[in-house]
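Hi R.,

Here are the chain sequences for the assembly we discussed:
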Amino acid sequence: MRPDLLILRFGELWLKGGNRQDFVRILAKRLRHGLKAAAPDAEVAVRHDRIEIRLGDGPWAGALELARRTPGIARVVCAHHVERDVDAMKMMAPRLIQAALESPAHRNNPSSTFRVMARRNDKRFEMGSPELGRVLAEAVLAEFPMPVDLRGASLTLGCEVAAHGSALWTEDYVGCGGLPVGSAGKTLLLLSGGIDSPVAGHFAQRRGCELESIYFHSPPFVPEDTRDKVRELGSVLAGAQGHMILHSVHFTEIQKAIKAHCEAKHTVLLYRRFMYRIADRVAKARRCLALVTGESLGQVASQTLENLNIVDGLSERFVMRPLLTVDKTEVMDRARALGTYDISIRPFDDCCTLFVPKSPTTRGKNHILEAQEWRLDVEGLIDEAIERTELIELSPGKITP
Amino acid sequence: MLYLDHAATTPIDESIRAGMLKRFETSFANPSSAHALGRKARKELERARHRIAQLISAQSDQIVFTGGGTESLGLAVLGSAGDAPARIAISAVEHSAISESAYRLKERFGWQLDEMPVDELGVLRPQTVARMVTSQTRIVAVMMVNNEVGALNDLASIAQIVRRQAPRAKIIVDAVQAFAKVPLDMGALDVDLMAFTSHKIHGPKGIGGLWARNLSALRPVFLGGGQEAGLRGGTQCAVLAWGFAEAADLQSQAPTHQLGRRCFEVLKSAVPDLELIGPDFGASRAAHICSVHVPGIPTGPLLNSLAEAGVCCSAGSACTRSSRQDFSKVLLAMQRSPEEGAFLRFSVGRTTVESELAQAATIFGRCVADLRAVYAT
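And here is the predicted structure of the full complex:
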């Protein structure tokens, strides 16, 4: 049955004290913006303890998807608005259960169990929560006899009576959780074509960070396909914040200089030192408060504790590494859920693997790397790379050059 | 843009495009319809079939139109395989349309697959065929011109050996790169099936052909309304067929050009240690494919720099990477390896002009020099 209302419940946002209203305002703005494309005739209403999306007559699946993917929302309920009247609710409840039983999830389940979770938020309503639950359960069970299981029923009828109306539902989804994007400020994500960095960006978004992203491109050593892949990954992250800027840095000359003048075993660490410095400069110019990376401890030679120390001091800004201690398989599961995994595994090289010897150093030393950098015009190379940086605006799901 | 990738596909001929646009208005009807427009489309379709048949000295009822070369080859292999598992022999450098169909016979139907090695020039030698084909062999598939290196196989000798050693085998020829460029006389060439396509000769995409000495010996791969002798159900497109026939005529009437050879000469003048891959230009090589080896630099970056500078060519058939797992199967079969350097295929068409080759060579020389400067350190 087509719902006419999405009820969006806050998670930890609810715990916020004085500035909760600011958070809710940011969230509502984000949703209104997203709905313009996802479900143009839906409307957002902010209530005391939730946000409601009133679905119009147009397509609504996009609104549900948006709500589920928007950081700051813990649960999404697909509800049916009913009058604040017990008889109206008693009429509606069996119809919803019938639709649920006919849905693919329950159709072939002969052992469906049932419960009602009723809540009376408006204490002026004529009936208390337990009694309301009982009345609705009787109405349903009279038509669809099923075993009742109050703890873990396969089918739950939700009911809520508020001052402005009441709602019934059988569908209730877990949302993204966390805090609204933008509530923590703006950060710069170091985005590659790999599996990790999009997940790191998603985690940062979930803690309220708005993202810009930076990618290091090395034509002709890296094919344009790699950059297309990064743009596609970026547009997935753009979905949670409406749009996202991608800074595509021309990294070729730096890699050529390192190849020409430095010892091969330090190549990757030198690349990374340049990346950190460039990202920090871009972050400063774009007023980003922190860098976000997909680094994970011990995953590759450049991500040992020693080698993380080598790059850590290079950014004036705080560096967030959300995946630092997360297991690779968990990261892959997250990437699948986020929808970036299948994009990330497309087989195009990125610049980190360029000119890299088979066994790069796992224990870099600052003074050695600094000595290597003495052979290069570090500032000149950085200036040139930033000079040749392209700004790409990414929209959710589609890419505009 | 300097388009030197005609072995991948060709731009459609101007006159064909114009003629097709006109015919989309007049010959759009379903050729199976009984009304006047349907009959008109049917005539157009059959005329096209007749023109193509004539070009290869065949009969109209030996030709079916398909969606393209891959479909023709798939129909040829899967459609001539009997129910009982037997042996299929293919050369090691066949297009995936053949090799994947052969793997299907092997994996799903228990056939034995014999891959016949080629020599260092990419040519399948008749004596190799003599060694590999047995009386149990039921299908032998060989390409006439290799799509990556232009090597031309001696099909007459190969067919003779197959007939002697495997009298029950069907001989399938992939003539996708050869059709209308190399003379084909199906009356004289003792083979059973031959696949060809339109878009490699400045015709439209979406149509190909399969010639069979005996169409009724084939079984359809998918079923439909009985069109194309029951082998390829689905509404036929008379306009595409006309474009295909027109392209075949125009291509076969075009003088045999020397631009492939010329392409190699100008590229070599820009990069003196350039090596031609495959046989020398002449009787054993298709004139339009110029495959080269550039020592000392990997393929990917060279291909990317050429693309960036507006030169369109290919690495192997269409792949852009240089790691071993992505290395061209054809070059591997020719005992080449990605560590040797870059391997590129330039291919010319009727629209290619000499000045383009000179421009491309200048860019090529610059790109190679730039990359060598990086990789030499």
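The two ends of chain B are 32 Å apart (CA to CA). Residues 318-324 of chain B have pLDDT under 50 and may be disordered.

Let me know if anything looks off.

Best,
T.
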